[in-house]
Amino acid sequence: MQWNKQDLDQYFTAEEYIDTLLIPLIPITFTNQKEMEKSAAQQETGMIFVREMEKHFKGRIFLLPAYHYLASGDLGAEVSRLNEWAAKANERPFKHVFFFSFDPHWKKQERNLNGTLLWMPAIQTEDTQSKETQSIIKDQVNQLTGLIKTYW
Amino acid sequence: MSEKRQQVSRRQFLNYTLTGVGGFMAAGMLAPMVRFAIDPALQASSKGDFKAVEDVENITEEPTRIDWEIDQVDAWYESTVTKTAWVYKDENGDIVALSPICKHLGCMVTWAGNDDYPDQFYCPCHDGRYYKSGENVPNTPPPEGLDFYEYKIEDGTLLLGPTKPRGEA
């Protein structure tokens, strides 16, 4: 399911089945061209990843719009904000909350997050449409969905 | 009266000219209207398109996943969408092409996706199952069987088109 009206209509007919929330965490920076391009590329591939995951598990995963934040080495403040999100989601109730990110700074905060962090190193690619990139992404998405299944 | 000098009178000449010019103007106005009116009929419908996906001789009795791409146009943007089908030959040698979209809540099912049911389609979300024919296994969540793809065979190549729910197939 995605955050749009049509999917929400379906969500409310089958609420008890859709128990997993997926939140993409996307950093944004204004420092210099190189960093900004990197961050933009990460958000492009990141969104491809989460959309593919949602496509496989449409009937169980609810994909939220991306959570954007200012890139920083210290994400403590963001962690407490995300935990509020997770707490609200648990009231819905969503039983499982997954955060997806390419940003390695989350790895340090992982144990403070009330949810499961799916972190992976970013794929550096010029062209997300190329056949090689597509098959790499497909394979990684399969591994991620396999991982999510083990939490259910 | 001798020979008429003027075979076309001034009045006639003006009538002809005005009719001619008026006719052109009317045609100029009507042509686009007619074109707009029949335009939807002239548009190639992208929904009913068939795409060549695989050589028929490569298809076995074991359901195999086939991916292909179509261009999808909606109101706001055009995008390339990957479509997936599970394709096999039944005991009569006829092609069966099933949609992978679970009829419960829309997850992707896989053939033999669960080791306990090696000859069924399995939905990982809520353990929905389907027999090889695509019929849903009773007492699992899906309310009906998997959709079929419409298909055509041309020169030994399988072409897949839109999906059709079971009721209409």
TrEMBL record, chain A:
Pfam families: DUF2487. InterPro entries: DUF2487 (IPR019615). This is Uncharacterized protein. It comes from Sediminibacillus halophilus.
From TrEMBL, chain B:
The chain crosses the membrane at residues 12-34. One of its GO terms (cellular component) is membrane. It comes from the Bacteria. Keywords: 2Fe-2S, Disulfide bond, Electron transport, Iron, Iron-sulfur, Membrane, Metal-binding, Oxidoreductase, Transmembrane, Transmembrane helix, Transport. PROSITE patterns: RIESKE (PS51296), TAT (PS51318). PANTHER family: CYTOCHROME B-C1 COMPLEX SUBUNIT RIESKE, MITOCHONDRIAL. Belongs to the Rieske iron-sulfur protein family. Component of the menaquinol:cytochrome c reductase complex. The Rieske protein is a high potential 2Fe-2S protein. This is Menaquinol:cytochrome c reductase iron-sulfur subunit. It comes from Sediminibacillus halophilus.
